[in-house]
Design brief:
258 residues; alpha/beta; Rossmann fold; 7-stranded parallel beta sheet; 8 helices; 7 strands; globular; SDR family NAD(P)-dependent oxidoreductase
Amino acid sequence: MSAQHDPSLALRCLVTGATGIGAAVSLRLADLGHRVFVVSLDPGECRSLTGRLGERSAGFHAADLRAEDAAVAAFTAADQALGGLDLVVAVAGGSGRRFGDGPLHEVTLHAWEETLRLNLTTAFLTAREAVRRLRRTGGSLVLVGSVLATRPSPDLFGTHAYAAAKAAIGGLATTLASTYAPDGVRVNAVAPGLVRTPMARRAADDPVIQEYARRKQPLAAGMIEPGAVAAAVCAIGLAEGVTGQTVAVDGGWSVSEA
């Protein structure tokens, strides 16, 4: 992960999000022999995931990562538990539909701001606290965007504030990678397609969306499993010499004509 890191040693990892992609990333890192500290909003979900991590768990901290003080406290707890950080994966986020996200002409300022807080402010605060620590020794940061940022589906997924937030994550990864490469810090992003997570329950229950997913994501024959995204996150997060990249993990969405 850095010039100082011995690859034979377990990495010190922080993952935000305790269900869906976040849980899959944590479990994969643990399977690879690394130590994992979980940060997420729901303490029950955090506790459940850390139980599944077993001896590879370094603990958890329940925090609303939209709030600056909470984000700082979470990273302080991770520092104390792990003695430093080598890899940070920022998954926390979600749909803004409950705030009123949708087509731009219908979006209120409240819906816009709340959706960006949930998806972009969380990424900003996680990235900032990660970079402040990773600059000391080098390391890796992976952000999670969305295929909808660059390959929209206006009829089925017309949530414009969410798409804007996820598009900004790609730009953030690029500029952070450029700025902090001299410090030995790598920053990349993944852009998942339609993944089988708690956030995607609406899609999972909609036969029209399911048929669309079968055509649009032919490699997955429908919705992508979280483990497939976790595999890509870990690969790019652990790959020495790779920085400033956004990798689509979309089952073929971005190259299909559905």
